[in-house]
Structures are given as structure tokens and as C-alpha cells.
Amino acid sequence: MTDFDYELVKVCSRGGKEFYHIYPRTPLTRLPDSLARFEIKKRHEKYVVVEVDGYDVTIFTTGRMLIENLPENSEAKAKAIIEKITA
Amino acid sequence: MNPTEVRKDFPQLKDGHIYFDSAATSLKPLPVIEAVNYYYTKLSANVERGLHRPSHFATRMYEEAHHRLLKFINGTGEVIFTKNCTEAINLIAHGLDWKEGDEIITTFLEHNSNLLPWFYLRRRGVRVTLIRCDSEGLIDLDELSRSISSRTRLIALTHASNVLGTIQPISSVVEIAHRRGVKVLVDGAQAAPHLKLDLDSLGCDFYAASGHKMLGPSGTGFLFIRDGVIGEVNPCLLGGGTVKDVDLDQIILADGFERYEAGTPNIAGGIGLGAAVDYLERIGMENVRSHELELTGYAIEKLKTIKGIRIHGPQDPRKKTGVVAFSLPKIPSHRVAIILDEVGGIAVRSGYHCAFLLTRNILKEDLGTARASFYIYNTKEEIDQMVEVLEEIV
């Protein structure tokens, strides 16, 4: 378990796909060190888009994230992805 | 209209954020906030049911708000305050006496608020026919005309699409419908805040809109019912204020808007909506339209420069309201929206915009679209900032 404290919001569930919005209760100041372990698909000064377990995740320097296109009822999977990113 | 001056009236803009989500709900100017505050601090009392002075003056302000709104939309009939446009449409869906086999015509363009109430009536044996629109979001009047049968009772369609902004030919729809004895309900949620309305000229029987999208407080909307039709709409809720008299074996319903506003209404919201109408009239709806035409045209031209972007709906701003929906290649709209917010402090809407049929079947955008919607407080410089962030995303 990491000490990353966040709100997890299911953005929508459309056509069997779910998006999760992760909002940190205490904003971070930089991207997590663990990102080196993932394939970085897009890098920007304020965010990266990485692939984690086959799902695209946009991660901002503040700790805010968007996990894309998970299957239905994937809250546990979303949490597992956050755990991997913030470990 | 000077947007720099207008912006001073909107406290939320002072933190430097860019608000391009007015199609969801607009920001509120100080006169509206002050009107709501005035009610709560000076006149807090119930309306239509008290002899004391606070009640008298609150009643006067609340009723005046109805009159001002009716004048603003220039309709001969009654205006009923609701909590939003959705409630206004539902008042008609549940207020008309439907018979098995009756038919309703609506379109692929509709927001859920003007679709689900009609679909729900299928349980009572009502048939719902959907007519398609072209890729710009314009309905086909010939198809509409062909779809009318002897059992058609109502055509329910949007005045302007909440996704594409496309303005529909309402006068022509009404002419076709009335020739065949069919009534017309218009969902004006995306038109009332942006176009100068003349409901007597449009001729529709019912017009529903959101107060909160036209600078009014949250929890406000309205329904217009044309004179001569009001007797056909049963109230969905009954209670305090809706009757003239009650006896053991009969109730006599109140005339006018009171018949449909059961119980204590959203008084502060209604008074605030009246202040919003005053504010828009001071600016002038022609000026609102002119400003939005300029911004929308500018936005379309700037967005076109982004590689691979798909801009949905009419490219001619004169055919639409100040709404621009777009998609970036292989990038989900939610990602676009969250990056705009986090990197640029820019608020846009993303997803299906409660218009599933349009997004899936006409636009064929399974990843949804991003939607920037403009209003009186937006500027070209803000559009430049949005385009700059979008260029970085692609």
C-alpha cells in the first residue's frame, strides 16, 4: 500500500467501457518515480500518458490521473493500477 | 457589447480560469447573485400565501419574474417556472392525455431530456418515431412530413443541438405540424440563452428551457404553454397554490402558472432568473448573438489548423449557436478535457453529452467528443489558449 491519498471517480460507463478520474487529496509536485517501469506514450512538461496493464493512463505532475477504457465494473482494477503507479 | 466590461460582472472569472462549458450551465453575473442574496437577506418569505410585507414583496418579485420572462421570449401564453428544462419537458410528457396508439415524432439529435420522457411513454402504448439528421445535424423536413400519421399528436425537437449547435428550422416544423393538427414542443435549452426569441413568430405550442444556462441560478428552468393549449395539459403535481377552491367532491384548479407550480416554489431562483433576463436584455440578445458568431467563427478557423482534428456540425457559424464539438485522432475526449483543465485551466465538456443516439449513430464517435461552448464572457484570447494546449496534445 502506498500513502497516496485520492478520490476515485468513475467518469462514465458507456458501451461497456469505463473511465476513472483520480483526484489526489494532497497534490503531488512531480511525477512518480515508478513511471520508468512503464511504456511512455506521450511526454509533456506537466503530464505523461503511459500504458499500464494494457490501459492508457494520463498522469499529471499534481498526481491527478485518468485511466481509460477499462471494462465494466473495474473499480478494483483501477485501484490496482493506481497502486502500481504510485508504488 | 464589450466582453472586457461584461467579464467584470462574473466573479468566477477572476481566478483566471477559462470557462467553455456554458452549454452545461452558465456562469452567474453579480446582479443575479445579488438578487438571490437580496431575497434571502431582506425578503425571505413564502409567496402567494401571506399578507405580511415580506410575503407581499417577495410575491411581487416572483410574479414579475414570470412576466419579464414571458416578455423576453415574446409568447402569448403562460410561463411556468421549473427546476430545469428536463422538468419542463416532463410536465408535457406526463401532463397530456395519451391514448394507446398515439404517436410522437422526435429526432436523433435530442438530449436525453427530450428523448427519455417520450420513450417512457411506450409503456402506455405510445409509439415514438425518430427522424434522422444529416452530418451537420440538420433535420430533413420532407422526412418529418412523411413521418406524420393520423395518430401523430406531438413533434418534440430541439431548437439547437447541445452537441453541434445546429439551429433547426422550427417555424417550418410548426407550419408542417399545425397543417396536420399536430402540436410542437421545442427544447430550447441551447437556444434561449443565445438567440433572440419570438415564440409568437415561431408558433410552437410548448417551449422548454433552462434558466441556469441563461445566467439564472441553478435549479431554474421554464415551460411556455401557448394560450388555448393550457387546458390540455394536466398538472403532474398538485398541492398548495395550485387550486382556486377545494370541496369534498371537487377541486377547481388555479388559472395560469400557479396550476403547475405545486407547493412552495424556488422563490430565490425565480427572482434570480428575472434578474438574469434583465441582464440579458440590457446587453441585448442581438449583441449576444453577434459576439457568439464572431467567437464561434474564430474558434472553427483556429481549430481547423490542428492536425487531424475533426470538427463536428456546421462550419458556418450562422447555422449554429456558440458550440463547437471536436475530436482529436485516437484520443478519447475525456483525456482532451482533463488535459485542457489541468494544463490550461480550461473547462470543456467531454463524452456523449447526454446525446447517445447522435454521438453513436450520426457522428460515429465511440470515444465521445470534446465540446467548447461560448457565451458573453468569453474572448478570442481564451480560444487561442485552448488551441495552444490542443496542439500540444496531438
Automatic annotation (TrEMBL), chain A:
Q: What is this protein called?
A: Uncharacterized protein
TrEMBL record, chain B:
Domain of life where this protein originates: Bacteria
InterPro entries, from UniProt?
Aminotrans_V_dom (IPR000192), Aminotrans_V_PyrdxlP_BS (IPR020578), Cys_dSase_SufS (IPR010970), Cysteine_dSase (IPR016454), PyrdxlP-dep_Trfase (IPR015424), PyrdxlP-dep_Trfase_major (IPR015421), PyrdxlP-dep_Trfase_small (IPR015422)
List, alphabetically, the Pfam families matched: Aminotran_5
Signal peptide boundaries = none
Q: Does the keyword DNA repair apply?
A: no
What keywords appear on the UniProt entry?
Pyridoxal phosphate, Transferase
UniProt-listed Enzyme Commission number(s): 2.8.1.7
Q: Which GO terms describe its biological process?
A: cysteine metabolic process
Top EC class, one word: transferase
Gene Ontology MF terms: cysteine desulfurase activity; pyridoxal phosphate binding
CDD domains, A to Z: SufS_like
Please report which protein family the annotation says this sequence is part of.
Belongs to the class-V pyridoxal-phosphate-dependent aminotransferase family. Csd subfamily.
Q: Protein name, please?
A: cysteine desulfurase
